[in-house]
Amino acid sequence: SFSNAQWYIDQQLQYEQNAKQNGFKKVSEMLKAVSLNIKSFVGKGGFLFAMCSATDSYDISLAALEIDIVEQMFDGDAADPDAQEMLNLNNTLAFTDFNLEMNPYLYEYSNIDIQPIEIGNFKNDYFTLFEFSAKYDPVPTMLTQCHINVLRGFMGQTTMFRRSTIKNSVIILAEREGTDQVKYIHGNFGRGTFTFYGGHDPEDYQHAVGDPPTDLTLYKNSPGYRLILNNILFPAATKKKQKT
Q: Is the pLDDT confidence value at 189 over 80?
């Protein structure tokens, strides 16, 4: 636990101060408002790219807009005991039918995330990119552009997504073949789109708090970072209308 670490204490104080300055009683209420603003941005034509726990935690927040899923140690009051049953899964972008992890002592949010024990030996952790037609699916094609199609896996607070929790409307861009573990997804909401990529650092398999940042000059041809670059370039892509 980092609860006694100075950086954690400073961050908590900063969040609480920001919430108060913006008229919110609790940090969790402020973050719900942030989630709604991001969703509005996407719906109006924006593009959301997220990695690691910025993926599932965001959707969980949207599903829990009207309920309290934060335990007392974090916000001063208890979480709703019926939180799971009260989730509004119609509000989410990518995920559905997931189960919350309400134990505050476990470093997890829900069963969307794939656990290390499910991945097994890290030497066998690879994921495969799907192939798409550039003519009919230019955006997925662009998002999966890479010089190899089988990439080394990497972990994060959210490492991969459980297939059974992904909405049918979402496009799967990469997966661990032969498993229910999905690494990379893309979808539409309103006039905008979102892309979620599991894991923290493609060139640091198990990046931990306090580890030095990755020196990207050492990984100029990183396939994992290439996928990130694809998302930076993505807004320039347009889909031509097909003749009918």
A: yes
SS3 53: helix
Going by pLDDT thresholds of 50, 70 and 90, the confidence category of residue 126 is very high
**Angle, CA of 207, 153 and 118, to the nearest 5°:** 90
Q: How far apart are CA 147 and CA 196, in angstroms?
A: 20
| pLDDT at residue 60, rounded to an integer | 97
Report field, pTM of the whole predicted structure over 0.85? yes
Strand duo 181-189 + 161-162: pairing: antiparallel
Write phi, then psi, for 175 (nearest 5 degrees).
-150, 165
Note the residue count of the chain: 244
Own/partner pairs, 211-216, CB within 8 angstroms, 24+ separation: none
| Residue 131 in this model has a pLDDT that exceeds 80 | yes
Sign of CA dihedral 55, 34, 8, 101: negative
Encoded tokens for 131? 């192939």
Average pLDDT, the chain: 93
DSSP state of 158: S
Cα gap 78→65, rounded to integer Å: 16
Alpha-carbon separation of residue 226 from 4, 151, 184, 193, 216 (angstroms): 37, 11, 13, 19, 12
Helix and strand tally (H, E) in the chain?
8, 7
Give exposure, 216-235, as e/b (b: 16+ Cβ within 10 Å). Answer: eeeeeebbbbbbeebbeebe
Q: Please say if the pLDDT value at position 97 is more than 80.
A: yes
